[in-house]
Amino acid sequence: MSDRSLLVLPGDGIGPEVMAEVLRIVEWFRDRRNLDFEVSEDLVGGCAYDMHGTPLADATMAKAQEVDAVLLGAVGGPKYDALDFSVKPERGLLRLRKEMDLFANLRPAQCFDALADFSSLKREVVAGLDIMIVRELTSGVYFGEPRGIFEEGGERVGLNTQRYTESEIARVARAAFELARRRGNRVCSMEKANVMESGVLWRDVVQEVHDADYADVELSHMYADAGAMQLTRWPRQFDVIVTDNLFGDLLSDLAAMLTGSLGMLPSASLGAPMANGRPRALYEPVHGSAPDIAGQGKANPCACILSFAMALRYSFDERAEADRLERAVESVLAKGIRSADLLNVQGATPASTQAMGDAVIEELDASL
Ligand code: IPM
Ligand code: MG
């Protein structure tokens, strides 16, 4: 039996199509690199709701707690828009994040040279961009209580609570400093300490963790609105950005667009180490379920493939193999093989999801 276990949750929309290519690549690593993975598959999101009446069955949740890594495709779709909040497809994803306690969400925004012209910003601003957003993922306004829509003084009031404890801030700050040491050794922390007490605490705790244990890493602080502005003005000034759940949601979409395509961006959500030393982990593309193109073979599988590369790196410590897979994707792009989202030439023929997968596998073969 393999000592590497994966739970694959393809989910909704384009999730199953892009995940099918990842599964071929998992097999490639098994056959050609002797990396054995024990793979099981299950439902999450709308398809789980259709089957079980809940976007994540308890049995699936339990399985997720047992494996080394969860690979997730995407959740959601218009079919589920009218569902009650508590059973919406997104709740399945949020439950995984919360119950696995995946507090550090790593969202790299890397501009592949072959795609620099796709950015809405000028090539000279984005070429060579390589930043890592570390988003706190299990607390803040996403989960804070009280929350709800209430009746007050004859009208409705919508309420959510931004709440952070010191330990929640400290652990995600540590994750960011650790990552920075392996990259450019710089961290910029973003909050709104000018208007929010939770932001004042955030800034204090990040500074304290830095001064106590990471004084060798260069730390700066920025208000999140100014951070958004600086991300579009001069994104290469950043190395690692650490920020809370809601600001991280916004800033990571912004950073994603700098790179030209949402179809290229992977993510890793990491928690505390398990008994075997590996962190609890879930890997997913940043893009959503794209219901408008689902089932047509048009989706770009690269973000999901690169998410598996992150699994090789962060869950299985196979850094050389992660590099190999990332380089294979880069070579495919450099050769001009492009899915529809990466084509701006009228009349050019886009590569299908499967053709993209074929091309990556061809590059992997060539790398041996
Ligand atoms: C993301 C998404 C999710 C979020 C949704 C699908 C719940 O936007 O992963 O960024 O808001 O966290
Ligand atoms: Mg988002």
Write a structural description.
This protein is α/β, with parallel strands linked by helices and 368 residues long. It folds into two domains: 1-106 and 262-368, Isopropylmalate Dehydrogenase (3-Layer(aba) Sandwich); 130-258, Isopropylmalate Dehydrogenase, CATH 3.40.718.10. The chain is 41% helix and 21% strand. The chain contains twelve helices and twelve strands. It has a ten-stranded mixed beta sheet with strand order 2-1-3-12-11-4-5-10-8-9, with helices on both faces. α1 crosses α10, α6 crosses α7 (197-213) and α10 runs antiparallel to α11. The longest helix has 19 residues, at 15-33. The chain starts with a strand and ends with a helix. The relative contact order is 0.16. It binds 3-isopropylmalic acid (IPM) and magnesium ion (MG).
- What ligand molecules are bound, each kind once? 3-isopropylmalic acid, magnesium ion
Radius of gyration: 20 Å
How would the global form be characterised? globular
Any idea how many domains? 2
Name of the CATH architecture of the largest domain? 3-Layer(aba) Sandwich
The percent range for strand residues is 15-25%
- Helix-strand pattern: EHEHHEHEHEEEHEHEHEHEEHHH
Kindly identify the CATH topology of the largest domain.
Answer: Isopropylmalate Dehydrogenase
Question: Helical amount among residues, as a percent range?
Answer: 40-55%
Task: Flag low-confidence runs.
Answer: none
In DSSP terms (H or I, runs of 4 or more residues), the helix count works out at: 12
Average pLDDT across residues? 95
The CATH superfamily of the largest domain is identified as Isopropylmalate Dehydrogenase
- Mind telling me the CATH class of the largest domain? Alpha Beta
Oligomer: single chain
The largest sheet is: 10 strands, mixed
Major sheet: order of its strands? 2-1-3-12-11-4-5-10-8-9
Number of strands: 12
Instruction: Provide the structure class.
Output: alpha/beta
